[in-house]
Amino acid sequence: MKTALVCGGGGFIGGHLVKRLKKEGYWVRGVDIKYHEYVESNADEFIKGDLRDPRLVAEVVDQPFDEIYQLAADMGGAGFVFTGDNDADIMHNSGLINMNVLDESYRRNVKKIFYSSSACMYPEHNQMDPDNPMCSEGSAYPANPDSEYGWEKLFSEHLYLAYARNKEMQVRIARFHNIFGPEGSWKDGREKAPAAFCRKVAETPPGGTIDMWGDGKQTRSFLYIDECIEGVRRLMESCFQGPVNIGSEEMVSINQLAEMIMNIAGKNQDINHIPGPLGVRGRNSDNTLIKEKLGWEPNYSLMKGLEKTYSWISSEINK
Ligand code: NAD
Asked: Residue whose CA is closest, atom 41 of ligand 1?
């Protein structure tokens, strides 16, 4: 039986990954600083602990796991990452987690380790035009991320690649682009745009008004969680080290995103544009490399993913 450790297993993507690995027949240990807020973990073992502490990491990485998935990070949506208020914590906490987990994995002879980077590491200067953002993997340098969260991701990509070069570790690195779906943050200040608008639309009566940060003309693409997990597993099984984008190429403006959710809810609401933390003007996944290396790319429609997410958030509100 294959063994896997999921760091960040109490989080949104980690929780879904644990489920998937269990379905595939793995023995799974999850670790997180908190228990999952919305579901009971499917992991065979779940350790609650702080991965910034090397002693805890030594306890958790106590065997040569076949696979480690490193998803733990101090992260959130624009309201957490782009205000500037959490920069020191984001860099310190996520940096320490990556250094600890990777080094202990090396010492324990772990076969393969996955690292979840982010599209936030792409240079700001290539994402000023909302209609033509450039996020191909090769466009990463000269580096110029617009957030400290992005700089930490870039640093950690280099860290993993250095261990691959100098210590012969097998690493796999994905740059996730706005992953969304059920069982993720929707009201704790760390939620991202799809969950935030599902909540606002659900909580506001027809004819009411919802707030939106900025003019809503900024663009993004959003990837449904099942496709993200599929991409992670395919990358892990492949010989390609990455970094590679795991994202959707279905780019929409934030105004369009909110309108899609209103359509799902069957509600007409006004949008009140207010100042707030925004991030880059445009961002979209470029799937040329993933198609070439994995012979696969995500193709789940945004609308279908939003329907499932809206339905889950509505049921959480009504609990
Ligand atoms: P999440 O916040 O739900 O999951 C991260 C988990 O890490 C949380 O459960 C958190 O408690 C845990 N964690 C934080 N500090 C810890 C510590 N010191 N010790 C142990 N656990 C700790 O976020 P997610 O959306 O599931 O993201 C997973 C990974 O994917 C993160 O590395 C994130 O940066 C990356 N990513 C996510 C997205 C996205 O759109 N969701 C996009 C790009 C990259």
From this structure: 179
